[in-house]
Amino acid sequence: YALELGYERADVFSPCTTLADLDFFNAVETRLPENTTFHVPLYGVEAAIHDRVVGRKGAFDRVMVALDRLLSKRGKRSVRILSVVTTESKDQLVEIAAFAEARDLGYSAHFAYPSFESRSDRYYTAAPTQVETAAAILTSRKEFKRSGRPLPHWYLVEGMSPCVMFEPARKARLPLRTWLQVPDNVILVGTEYREDRFRHRSTEAGHAAFDPPTVPCPHVDVCVLSQACPGEFLRAYVERFGIDEFKPVTLKHLISTL
Q: CB neighbours of 84 closer than 8 A, spacing ≥ 6?
């Protein structure tokens, strides 16, 4: 356990269904440092959607029990809501953001990536295109406005290529500062384990899940948004969808939005 090993900080990524069991919860919670963040996965704000995505009936209810228990024991600063974009969860991303904000919780979402290099990986059937995801987010935000519900803050889906978001955001008249972020180090979702700061057991170091093959973007040298982009795609994504949705943005196009 983390405390026994001398860890001062921990991040827990878990389906959280087992934390609905009180004895298991207590066994885990008491052996983690005070500075621990629990990343609670949520794929929909309705049980039917969440359960369908994870493939387990009753999972949503168990996650809600675990979430309430974590908030009661650890407080909201130790809990974040996390979502992975799938074909079934993409229409729920704004709803999940609203769910998190209503509870004053941090929230993030990222695109899926394969666990191993095989067509049998669920990634090939569960992952949506980036274009579909962008459209789903903007459609949901329109529905929020139309219904008069409080619109949650804009949350950028980690792994969304800026060139894909550019045109639908322009049509929706979203200011660049609302959706475009330029971090110091842009990393393709799924390739984080290439970094030296991650240490693995020797048997895991070469596993495909930690370093999935990638394909370079052919538009890096001509797209003005390249500094906000990792400049590569997951090979699995390219095999599944191709790269036609990724189009370079020119300076003229960019200026037209200002």
A: 41, 43, 109, 110, 111, 112
Strand pairing class (214-216; 232-234):
antiparallel
Question: Cα separation of 145 and 43, whole Å?
Answer: 22
Which residues are within 8 A (CB) of 253 and not within 5 positions of it... i.e. 6 or more apart? 166
Token readout for 72 is: 């009661």
H-only helix segments in 172-233: 176-179
Q: Which residues of 49-81 are buried (b: 16+ CB within 10 A; e: fewer)?
A: bbbbbbeeeebbebbbbbbebbbeebeeebbbb
Q: pLDDT tens, 183-196?
A: 888 889 988 777 66
What does DSSP assign to residue 192? G
CA distance 5 to 74: 21
Asked whether 123 and 113 are in contact (CB, 8 A), the reply is yes
Report the first-to-last Cα separation within the chain, whole angstroms: 52
Q: Which two tokens stand for residue 51?
A: 């359960």
Predicted pLDDT at 209: 46
- What is the C-alpha radius of gyration for the chain, rounded to an integer number of angstroms? 19
- What is the CB-side half-sphere exposure of residue 114 using CA atoms within 13 A? 22
pLDDT value for 199:
65
pTM for this entry: 0.90
In degrees rounded to 5, what are phi and psi of residue 107? -145, 140
